[in-house]
Structure formats: structure tokens, C-alpha cells
Specification:
The protein is built from 15 helices and no strands. By secondary structure, the chain is mostly helical. It folds into 2 domains: 96 residues, no CATH class; 227 residues, no CATH class. The two termini are 33 Å apart.
């Protein structure tokens, strides 16, 4: 019987691969030509969007600064949700950049055509919800393509980051126009302070549907259509209330819509918390099996056996070590999610995740004394 040394990450990974029949041959995958926070769509659309951002920075720096304010509310919430299985920061940045570039460029192109041919109301109520939610949803599917989504919470997290990127650039556009019209303060309060979670609230349903489809091995993207439909309907309803309030000169419509928005927002928060709680419970329950299968010593798995103890330990770590701790936590969580899915396990997926766990454990070991 092989003798496992938990600190020997490479030997451990090789032993796991041997005993589970996943070893030995290189995967043959090409090394990525771009950093993890970039992709070809993001790079191309980023070059197209860069002149607009440059103009805002040069001529309206205040507008650009104000567009970042909603992130002060959104980012902490996304980090809290993501504590269950911390995603790599490069992946989060890529999702944000997808929303700020690919989703924005696609929406601008289509909405501009509809605006010229069908008018402003049709653009706001029909085109914008359909196109914008589709483009944001593609950003989540891109994360699935990268094998970064393991379940509903991951889908929600990536939906939030994509929506945050899209909303930031959209706010630059709205604030730019509002500054010229002399209503920047009112627009800032309405969009940045009262409704900073509008786009994440819409797109979170797509992320939830995609995450459920991945965890239950449903076929994508058809299995996620219900989430996309909810996102489009919520988006269209919100935009339609604004258009109706302006066209009919009746602020009561907007008040009713705002109350409905708050109620839906509260219900969504409850749903996200319940989904997160269920995944957390499943994760803790799976730890003994994961520890046994991948020869994780009790001392290591004990750090993640209870939620409160894990958070307490993380807070006591030096800031430089927290990312390594998060990497180990995430590697264990991904393996737990893999074994929770119905059906047979893909050996290639198990090998990839087992190697991530080995690397994370090796990184956590103390440096040898000199």
C-alpha cells in the first residue's frame, strides 16, 4: 500500500491518478495564449469600447468616478455569496470584463438598430431586455465553457459579476447624458443609490438556471431558458414602468414599480441565501467522503468541517495566506460538487480537480527551514 504524505503534492496527485485510473497521459490541451482574466471576445470588444471609456475619462472624469459607486454595494455582496466556493479572482475579473465589453458592445449594436427603426419605447421594453440579458447570459455560459461553474451558487456569482460590469458601463452612458442635461445628481441617486442591484437582480436568474443545469447534468443552454425568460420579463417590466411613467406623466406607475422591485429584490435575496445554505450543508456533509477518497488527513479536512470554525480560522490567518486557504477550500468544494452530481463522473474532470487539490495543499504547507 502506498504511503501518502500530505505535504508532497505532486506525489499525492500521481497516486490519486494511478488508483483511480486517470493518470498518465498529458491532456493535450494547449496553453492559453491570453491571461485568465481575458478571452478573445473580451479583448476584441474591449478594444471597441476603449474609445468611449477614454472620452469619458478625459471630458467627464466625475461621470466615470460616479459609475464605480454602485460597485461599493455590489462587490461585497458577491464576495459574501462566493465565500462558499471562492472563485479565482482572474475568473471574476473576466466575468466583469465580459459584462463591460462583450455584453455592452452587443447591446449597443442591436439596440441602436432597433432605436432607429422602431423607436425608443420598443428599444427599452423589447430590444434591451432581450439583447442585454442574452449577452450577459453568454458570459455565464463562457464560465461554464471554462469549467468554472459547479452549481447554482457559482452561476449566481458569475451572473453578478457580469451584470456589475454591464451596469457600470451603462451608468457611464446615462451619467454622461444626464450631465449634459443638467440632471446628473438626480440620475446618480436613482441609478447608483436606489437601484444599484437592478441588473444583478435580472441576470441572477440566468445564473441560477445555468448553475442548476450544470449540477444536475441537464443539457445547456436549453435547460436554462426558464432563467433567461424570468430575467427578460423582469427587465422588460422595469423598463416598461419607466417608459409608461414618462409617457403618461404619472409618477404613481413608477412608485408601484419601485415597490414591486423591492419585494422581488427581497424574495431574490431570500432565494439566494437558501440556495447558498443548501450548498453549504451539502459541502460539509460531503467532506468525510472527499477526505477518504483523496487521502486528506483529518487535520486538514477538520479546518473545513464546520462553517463557523472555517471562517474563524480564515480571519486569524495573515492576509497573505488567506488566498491559499481559499484555494484549498475551493478545491475541496469543487470535488464535493463533482461527486454530488448525478450520473458517472468524468475521469478527466476528477483528475483536473484532484490536481487542483494537490496544488492547493502543497501551497499551504509551511516553507522548509533554511
Amino acid at each position: 500500500m502506498a504511503h501518502y504524505r500530505w505535504w508532497d503534492g505532486h506525489a499525492w496527485a500521481a497516486n490519486v491518478a494511478y488508483f483511480h485510473g486517470t493518470a498518465a497521459t498529458p491532456s493535450g490541451r494547449r496553453r492559453p495564449r491570453l491571461p485568465a482574466f481575458l478571452s478573445v471576445p473580451v479583448l476584441v470588444c474591449g478594444l471597441l469600447a476603449l474609445p468611449f471609456i477614454g472620452l469619458a475619462a478625459v471630458f467627464e472624469p466625475l461621470v466615470l468616478a460616479l459609475a464605480f459607486v454602485p460597485l461599493l454595494f455590489i462587490v461585497p455582496v458577491l464576495i459574501w455569496i462566493d465565500r462558499l466556493e471562492p472563485e479565482p479572482w482572474a475568473s471574476r475579473v473576466h466575468a466583469f470584463l465580459w459584462g463591460a465589453t462583450v455584453a455592452v458592445v452587443g447591446a449597443v449594436l442591436v439596440n441602436s438598430v432597433v432605436l432607429l427603426t422602431a423607436g425608443e419605447a420598443a428599444t427599452a421594453v423589447i430590444s434591451a431586455p432581450l439583447v442585454e440579458e442574452t449577452m450577459k447570459g453568454l458570459g455565464i455560459l463562457w464560465a461554464v465553457r471554462r469549467r468554472e461553474v459547479d452549481g447554482p451558487v457559482d452561476g449566481i456569482v458569475y451572473a453578478g459579476w457580469v451584470a456589475a460590469g454591464f451596469a457600470m458601463i451603462e451608468n457611464v452612458e446615462y451619467f454622461f447624458v444626464a450631465s449634459d442635461d443638467g440632471v446628473l445628481a438626480e440620475t446618480f441617486v436613482a441609478r447608483a443609490l436606489l437601484t444599484p442591484f437592478a441588473h444583478p437582480l435580472f441576470t441572477v436568474w440566468i445564473g441560477l438556471a445555468i448553475g442548476l443545469a450544470v449540477s444536475r447534468r441537464w443539457r445547456l443552454p436549453w435547460a436554462a431558458l426558464w432563467g433567461w425568460a424570468i430575467a427578460v420579463l423582469l427587465h422588460a417590466g422595469w423598463n416598461g414602468a419607466i417608459v409608461a411613467s414618462i409617457d403618461l406623466d404619472d409618477d404613481r406607475i413608477l412608485v408601484v414599480a419601485a415597490v414591486a422591485f423591492v419585494v422581488i429584490f427581497a424574495l431574490t435575496i431570500v432565494l439566494v441565501a437558501l440556495v447558498r445554505r443548501r450548498e453549504r450543508r451539502d459541502y460539509v456533509a460531503a467532506m468525510p467522503y472527499v477526505a477518504h477518497r483523496y487521502q486528506v488527513p483529518p487535520g486538514e479536512v477538520g479546518m473545513f468541517s464546520t462553517w463557523g470554525e472555517m471562517l474563524s480560522l480564515r480571519r486569524r490567518l495573515p492576509r497573505a495566506q488567506r488566498r491559499r486557504f481559499d484555494d484549498l477550500h475551493a478545491a475541496l468544494a469543487r470535488l464535493a460538487a463533482l461527486h454530488a452530481r448525478p450520473g458517472a463522473i468524468d475521469p478527466a474532470d476528477e483528475q483536473r480537480l484532484a490536481q487542483q487539490l494537490a496544488a492547493a495543499r502543497a501551497a499551504m504547507r509551511p516553507a522548509p527551514p533554511r
